[in-house]
Amino acid sequence: MHAMQYELTLPASYDMGIIRARVAAKGHLLDHWDGLGLKAYLMRERGVDASPVNQYAPFYLWNTVEGMNSFLWDGGFQGVSNDFGRPSVRQWTGLAYEEGGAAGSPARVAVRRRQPVPDGVELAGFTADAADEARRLADTDGALLAAAVVDTSGWELVHFSLWAHDTPKAEGEVFQVLHLSAPGLGLLPRGRQW
Question: How many domains does the chain have?
Answer without folding.
Answer: 1
